Amino acid sequence: MTLTRPMLALTGAVAVLALAGCGAGGDSEAAVPRTATGSLEKLAAEAKCEPDMQTDADEIRQAICKTGKEKYILATFATDRGQREWINTAKDYGGYYLVGRKWVAVGHEDVVTGLRDTLGGTLEIGTDHSAH
Questions:
Q1: What span is annotated as the signal peptide, if there is one (predicted)?
Q2: How far is CA 100 from CA 2, 3, 41, 87, 108, in A?
Q3: Of 81, 73, 132, which Cα lies nearest the Cα of 107?
Q4: Which residues face 76 on adjacent strands?
């Protein structure tokens, strides 16, 4: 089969629409705000949390935050790679992870989902060990 210019143009247009997510799940994603960035203190302020610092190192800063009666972990990372390695290891323990650029919030599903309304980000779910 020989690809002609019109076929290439059509293929390109289909690829662009697929990547843009046109028509698939647009309503649920439209409500998520732009992903927050910044220091742990800036993120905590946006989430209306007074962080209880647990780790303050060059590569990771980690604090416990509260939302009502629920607690969650808020962590920032020096590098994208360090963040991804931390998440990949932590996800083995289960849980819900709200992931932004060089930051992560970890907590119960309802807490993380609520934070997403404020901080944006992408929801990732850890390994479910309940069947074992």
A1: 1-20
A2: 44, 41, 15, 12, 17
A3: 73
A4: 61, 103
